[in-house]
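Support request, please re-run this one:
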Amino acid sequence: MNPYFVWEPHDGGPSWRPFPQLLSPDVAASRVAASRAALAGMFGLEVSALPERVVASVLLLGYASRLVSPPLARALDSGSIPAVTPEDLWWREVPGGPLPMAVSGSGSRPAGEFFDVVVLGLVEPLVSVFGERFRLSPHVLWGNVASALGGAAGQLSAGAWPIVAGLLERAPLRGMADVRGGRVQRRNCCLYYRVPGGGTCGDCVLNLR
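Re-run finished. Output below.
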């Protein structure tokens, strides 16, 4: 479909780095710094014009999309999800765009275990690191995860929406967003509007005001 739905087979190449490295505050900070520089170049701004916390929030949304999209597509297609832990995933540095990810192992779990395997097993550790390192509210970060789920569902068939709606009923996603008419409506904001010229996202709570 598009790069957000792709986990490549891990080939052992030297450019791949273990996913748990992203759970290091120092590595997270270096990735945010790289994204900050890339965004500054995109908008023709000085790096200092982009608050670090804002870039961290936007980056976390992108990472969450990379983690939830492939399992959601597989759940819809086959009723199963990849049986993955952070130790089974790999990533590769790129200057911009979706983070390349690879997976080792080929096991599967029932789609009903999506919340435990993907949301709690893969996404929550990143949310914790980004929240602590960049002083971001859990509401912002878990709202980003809800937005990532909505973005993935919006590119799949209508059958994805009941899955997403069920996930949004469980803490810590509960109260972060609602499924309305085939789309997710956030109850919070990813802070992208604070990027000069950035505007608001389609599911942003600020659009309701």
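DSSP finds five helices and eight strands in the chain. The beta strands are 8-9, 17-18, 80-82, 89-91, 101-103, 108-110, 177-179, 184-186.
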